[in-house]
Amino acid sequence: MNRHGSHPRSILVRFSTPRLRDGFLAATISFNKERKRSKDKLNTGHIGFTGGPEGIYIVEHLTATVKELHAAVRKRAKELNYKLVWIRGGKLFMKKDESSERIVIRNHDQ
Questions:
Q1: How far apart are CA 44 and CA 53, in angstroms?
Q2: Nearest in space to 12 (alpha carbons), one of 50, 21, 80, 81
Q3: Sign of the dihedral defined by the CA atoms of residues 33, 74, 24, 39, in that order
Q4: How many CB atoms lie within 10 A of CB 90?
Q5: How would you classify residue 29: left for phi > 0, otherwise alpha for psi between -120 and 50, otherwise beta?
Q6: pTM above 0.70?
Q7: What is the DSSP track for 49-99?
Q8: What is the pLDDT along the chain (110 residues), one digit of tens a residue?
Q9: DSSP class of residue 103?
């Protein structure tokens, strides 16, 4: 646990190659998509922690600039009724819906 609050501490993992990182991220996304109930998704029980299962969230580590841009894009996407905003490989993407073309967001001016 985080000594300054009730939230668990983050664990930062550095992979030896981008391919290994992307494979790990894809595997966790696939694992969670196959499970409909949130209690079955990746949790502390899957990796041997005792106690009640707590969700594990796997995300890319982002620079402060990308975090700020991501927050601004999520807000703008909500205003414009875009359904999807995501980050992959440090790049920010958005889509109006599942069938639309993805848009790469590079800065606040787009």
A1: 5
A2: 21
A3: negative
A4: 11
A5: alpha
A6: no
A7: --SS--B--------HHHHHHHHHHHHHHHHTT--EEEEETTEEEEESSTT
A8: 556 667 777 888 999 998 999 999 999 999 999 998 988 999 999 999 888 888 999 988 888 999 999 999 999 999 999 999 999 888 899 999 999 999 999 988 77
A9: E
| Residues 93, 101, 60: CA angle, nearest 5 degrees | 20
- The token duo for 8 is 């668990």
Dihedral (Cα; 56, 67, 23, 50), 10-degree rounding: -10
- The token pair at 21 is 């990182």
Look up residue 67 and give its two tokens: 């975090």
